[in-house]
Design brief:
Length: 211
């Protein structure tokens, strides 16, 4: 994992091009957005840097999750005990494989063992526990600022998206109503015309009268 230490706050910020570091960057970005004052706290910096170091221990054994824009404010901060294996996907295939890893020549993962082996499962569980134990203190320090911020941003996105959708639908329905109203007017005009023609038919006919 390629790591740079921010000279202003001492946070270890991995390179955005490092595929093993995307989760760390996601966390750092949300801390910075939610409350920048957190970046000046020693306890938050220590907890965050500990997580970076923890994940760096397994470099070459996993690829961090890719955080897509639409998931930025909904995912990967509230972590369940089973989630580290989602956050660090490909972990199953590489964590316990001392001889495997990313092959730059072939552009693929090399796997020498079956992850269902007892040894592999033990290493996976150890990694899961290590990640959870390391992330837990950081989460406790940032959750009161980051989680409400994420919820607010999610609400704003949903509100914006739905508002645009409802406005679009209302505009469409206004057009439908206008078309329907125009049709009703024309239909009433036809009704008046037909009514007049009907009344004319009710008058006594005028037949030809011969002398």
């Amino acid at each position: 994992m390629s790591i740079n230490t921010d000279k202003y706050n001492g946070f270890k910020v991995p390179s955005k091009f490092d595929r093993t570091a995307r989760w760390c960057i996601h966390i750092y970005t949300l801390i910075k957005e939610a409350r920048q004052e957190l970046l000046q706290r020693d306890d938050v910096r220590t907890a965050y840097n500990n997580l970076v170091d923890c994940l760096n221990k397994y470099k070459g054994s996993y690829e961090s999750v890719r955080v897509w824009p639409y998931m930025k404010y909904t995912s990967y901060i509230r972590i369940k005990p089973s989630d580290p294996l989602v956050i660090t996907h490909n972990l199953y295939h590489n964590l316990y494989d001392d001889d495997g890893g990313w092959d730059e020549k072939t552009g693929s993962w090399t796997i020498e063992e079956d992850f269902n082996t007892d040894e592999g499962l033990i290493k996976i569980e150890a990694c899961r526990t290590d990640i959870m134990n390391t992330y837990g203190p950081l989460y406790e320090l940032i959750k009161r600022d980051v989680i409400p911020y994420m919820e607010m941003k999610t609400y704003e996105r949903i509100k914006s998206d739905r508002s645009k959708y409802y406005c679009s639908r209302m505009k469409r329905l206004e057009s439908v109503i206008k078309t329907a109203e125009d049709k009703i007017v024309k239909t009433r005009e036809k009704m008046v015309e037909y009514s007049k023609q009907y009344d004319e038919l009710q008058k006594p006919p005028k037949f030809t009268v011969f002398d």
